[in-house]
Amino acid sequence: MPRIRTRLAVLMLVLLASLVVVACGDDDDSSGSSSSSTTASADACSKDQLQLTNSGQLTVGTDKPAFPPYFEDNDPTNGKGFESAVAYAVADKMGFSKADVKWKVVPFNSSYAPGPKDFDFDINQISITPAREKTVAFSKPYYVAPQAVVIGKGSDLKVGSLADLKDATIGVQIGTTSLDAVNQVVQPSTQPKVFNDSNDVVTALKQKQVDAVVVDLPTAFFLTAAQVQSAKIVGQFSAPGGDKWGALLQKGSPLTQCVSTAIDDLREGGRLQALEQRWMGAAAGAPVLK
Questions:
Q1: 147-237: CATH superfamily
Q2: Which of 134, 187, 196, 239 could cross-link to 181 by cystine, CB 3.0-4.6 Å?
């Protein structure tokens, strides 16, 4: 009987050890599967796996002429200007050197037209809208346009903070995010003057019917450069409902997630904010108002 018991004990120990080995094997297999999945996801965005318009190079589209502060000297290739700098930063995150980036002229309206694209992504102040998303793909936003305060020539209004606008007569277009921004963020002591369209806003500024107008920052750049050249931007501020811009890609492009990942990385690392401040902030005549 003792021998039988001993044998049974030994068999039980062997069986227990086998179960432990099997269990450990299951854990290793599970861990390996998870690791493979993660690696596969990362591999999909490695440079040698990307499905590009032209092998070995990143083809980036934008319109011509290319205006500041988004591009400088009408030359997207020089890396100067907000969108030129962002494009090269995205390319760098995706493993491309500056020499690997090739620019292509793409008229604004053509960029989001249906059909195949002869670029990898387009960057040209293109707002992400549901209508456009039906025919093209967009990356995560690389920019959310803030609001800007513009004053006319000879204005006595001194603006160094949002508080300086409290008692000002502000002009704004009806039905815009700018009107919401004035009411929610500036909260002036008197109701803003509301106009039916952008032309009326410009006229009010020219004729000094208002102390200042509030428009989104891209519109402010155009207004002061082309519509009222004697006017100037005195500041910008963030507000709900900002206009979101994304890199535009062909509908269903497998590059979309890779470009979005690059933009996320740039934002998390603070590089995107630094580029925005350099090219769209004080250097562009639009300091941030608080």
A1: Periplasmic binding protein-like II (3.40.190.10)
A2: 239
